[in-house]
Amino acid sequence: MNGLRKTYGKRIKFVRVNIHDPKTIDLQTQLGFMTTPEFFLLDPAGHVVHQWAEDITADGVGQVLATLGK
Question: Rounded distance, CA 44 to CA 63, Å?
Answer without folding.
Answer: 19
